[in-house]
Amino acid sequence: MQYLLPFPHEEYVWLKRSERLFFGLLLAVEAGRRIGVFARQFQRDNPYSFQVLPEPRLHISLHLIGDFYWLREKIIFAAKRAAETIALPPVDITLDTIKSFGGPPSKDGTRRDRPVVLTGKEIGLRDLQRILGDAMRENGLKAGNCFTPHLTLSYSPSLITEQAIEPIHLWISDFVLIHSELGRTRYNVLGRWPLRG
After folding, report:
1. How does pLDDT run across 150-194, given as a tens digit for each residue?
2. Which residues of 63-72 are buried (b: 16+ CB within 10 A; e: fewer)?
């Protein structure tokens, strides 16, 4: 949904939701490089064409808090209060599968970009997502129950069928609150909380 607002001495302008807030796991620099190397090798070995997201933006999402026209301070405050209650050990993740999310082309034949993702085995990630969701609700925020752990590599019209890859191991020792400036491909980390125990 968009809003149409008048500005003094100007024509009406459309405002879009351009502020996204979410909890996620960012990769260490070395882990991001390893995934970048894998993605480039995968493209060389397969007939798929896609542009890998910049390494600093590779992440695993935990909870979308929302998309906003203006990001209000009280939303950020509530999210930080929820995060401060989490006391869980680090997360061990093994990415061993690549595939596309989404089905075949639409009935009218148009091609649509699908997420190209890495999935695999994880220890502790579902507990973190569930407990963080409970803390969000206790602080007045909405939190989804459905969760499919994945790391998005790119978006592509190609449909990549699920296939095994050489396992990529990730050791995640913290989680973050990210403000994403939609349309600008820019992430601002608003908070970081260690996982320990």
Report:
1. 999 998 888 899 999 999 999 999 999 999 887 667 789 999 999
2. bebeeeeebe
Cα 55 to Cα 78: distance, rounded to the nearest angstrom = 29
> Into how many domains does the chain fold?
1
Tokens of 74: 């009280």
Q: Is residue 90 part of a domain?
A: yes
The answer to whether position 159 is within a domain reads yes
Structural domain containing residue 126:
8-194
Give the CATH number for residue 158. Answer: 3.90.1140.10
Q: Per residue in 58-86, pLDDT tens? A: 999 999 999 998 889 999 999 999 999 99
Beta strands (DSSP E) in the chain are 3-5, 13-15, 19-26, 59-68, 91-100, 114-123, 151-156, 163-172, 174-181, 186-194
2 domain-assigned = no
Dump pLDDT digits (tens) for 94-143.
999 999 997 655 555 555 688 999 999 999 999 999 999 999 999 999 99
Residue pair 18/181 in contact (Cβ under 8 Å)? The answer is yes
